[in-house]
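fyi for ur records
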Amino acid sequence: MHMTHKAQLMDAQELGRALTRIAHEIIERAKGVDGLALVGIHTRGVPIAERLADLIEHFEGARPLSGKLDITLYRDDLTEIALQPVVRKTEVPFDVRRMTIVLCDDVLYTGRTARAALDALVDMGRPAVIQLAVLIDRGHRELPIRADYVGKNVPTSRAEVVKVKLSETDGEDAVLLLEQAAG
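which gave:
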């Protein structure tokens, strides 16, 4: 499937500003860092969670707990992904019970990844609150899931793909809108 570049939705500066705003919103709603944990969904949700934790630490002088969640085996579309899905490590080195957990991901689309993350998290215990922070909400939900914190809402068609690039995984910070080329 060939993709063509359609537009740049965010440059590095805009991406940084969006994460800064989300960090402030999380602090405001959580009233600080006590009982707060950020859990990134593999792959790009992990560096997003780490960046948010860094920003919150910078603003509050204390760092929230953080973890990584691999939801591969919780997905309801596992048979469509691959014969041998790549399972990464889940690292949530704290008790989730009675915590405010902010799940972090790059793009919210159908809601299936977020649902799988909820299943994986609840299997570890019952947090007080689970919230969702995403860099991009592109619409087209198939499940009744919404993000609590959104960097940018981007209306898209199903033929378009939102590609988040992060320096930790891709060598640069940018959000691109790609389109499946005809043919």
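The longest helix spans residues 12-30. thats all i got for now
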